[in-house]
Amino acid sequence: MRRKRKTKSILPGFSLTMGFAVLYLSLLVLIPLAALFIKSAELSPREFWDAVTAPRVLASYKVSLLTSLCAALVNLVFGLLLAWVLVRYRFPGKKIIDGLIDLPFALPTAVAGISLTTLYAPNGWIGSLMPEGVKIAYTPLGITIALIFIGLPFVVRTVQPVLQDLEADVEEAAAMLGAYRWRIFTRVILPELIPPLLTGFALAFARGIGEYGSVVFIAGNMPMKTEIAPLLIVTKLEQFEYAQAAAIAVVLLIISFVLLLIINFLQRWSNRRLRSG
Amino acid sequence: MADIAANTQARHHTAAEAKHLTEPPVVKWILISVAVLFIGLMVILPLITVLTQAFSKGLDVYLAAIRDPDALAALRLTIMTALIAVPLNTLFGLAAAWAITKFRFRGKQVLVTLIDLPFAVSPVISGLIFVLLFGAQGLIGPWLIEHNIKIIFAVPGIIIATMFVTFPFVARELIPLMETQGVQDEEAAVSLGAKGWRVFFKVTLPNIKWGLLYGMILCNARAMGEFGAVSVVSGHIRGETNTLPLHIEILYNEYQFAASFAVSSLLMLLAVITLVLKSLLESRMEKQLSGKD
After folding, report:
1. Domain total of chain B
2. How confident is the model over A70-94, as pLDDT tens digits?
3. Taking CB atoms and an 8 Å limit, are B133 and A107 in contact across chains?
4. Is residue B9 a part of any domain in this protein?
5. ipTM, 2 decimals?
6. pTM, full prediction
7. CA B195, chain centre distance (Å)
8. Contact, A114 vs A120, CB < 8 A?
């Protein structure tokens, strides 16, 4: 190991901790993930293409992507609102609201799933309030509601710290120059919040695409209509079509990885702006 | 001089909650109401639903659902799974954070990204990969059958899948924390002649204890509540390979709603305890950080 002087550390334990970390990571994460790609390679390119472009599969991707997108957009708006209210205002019960934001992270998805289904089913508290002919549970709208719940914390938790650290000087200066509040918000505050907003949005979107537990109960799971891609993977698995399941999963995984890369980039952009600003 | 004047003026303004820096009260209260309403509808109402449904058939049904042998078996398996997955992932988190934050090496950023990978993988795919590896048609499935080792549709599969989905929690909490703490404390201890483990237990551990606990609590909540990944590898054998979330699903699909929500209320309690501990630890960590400065 002939490297620059700086690499030399007097601290002990590098080979032990590094060795253990890499071994554990490889055995538990990297090798199993590789199995997915190996298994899907059992299909010829032609078969692979047919497996991932079958109408039912395409429909499931479409349902997953569209409902995740809608849910992430709703969370973008309400996440910004919640972060703003929690950082800027004082009101009774604020601490409880702040704590409850994280509930979707802590509550098992199956519990969220059956609870939301009961609420939004035609005979549920909210479902029964709907006008004749409007169904929420067992439609794409129900899937979207479950995904709003699951993605709720992401935008709030990415925007909150940035809003907290925002210097009052700039707002102060703009106000002294006579700018109105709305103008200050759109011209001074909002631009600072765009990187964390996008990061939170992408995180919520990515989580929504892969989500399973909270969605299966409320979705109704009708092929072509309310069948999400993760459920289709389970169905293929139950029919012992392992290679097909793997192929659908590979596409889903690639979408997730691309989103992960975008999120990483956004976070670096956000950090750079924070440091230089 | 002008600067000082402006500064005092500015300070005066903030003290009086400067009018030009906040919204009119009407706007403010509308925003607060919408935010509270949204949380009420999306978060509080589902929680209330769990409780009212759990007790909808009375206390007897509630208690019977929780005391049911299958429910108790599921509870035992859930606790056992967490007791294996959380310590192992904690050990990994400590090792990874030590290597990453105390040393410089090439490929560090790649390693950090790889640690986050399981968060980007759908729970269903997290289960699927182990079926493809250990299942009857899996890559090493035939070998396992030959040696009479059962992983998929058995307890080991549940534990492994849970370890996968909870893999990043502790590492992810410790890496940024130990990054900001630097290496000075440890280097000082080493130059004073302390040995490796002693440095870790006497210097590093006290510095990171709250963050470590925080990561472990989040890891535990996910380990006990995981549904998708476990559902794929479990095989749903009652009393044997059912965790609490899977037991809830079975009861719900059998239209035993009250029982299903009764068992759910246990997991909801876990979530609430997790949130309370989490916010307690957050204030502890803030205190520790500000105390150090």
Report:
1. 2
2. 999 999 999 999 999 999 999 999 9
3. no
4. no
5. 0.90
6. 0.90
7. 33
8. no
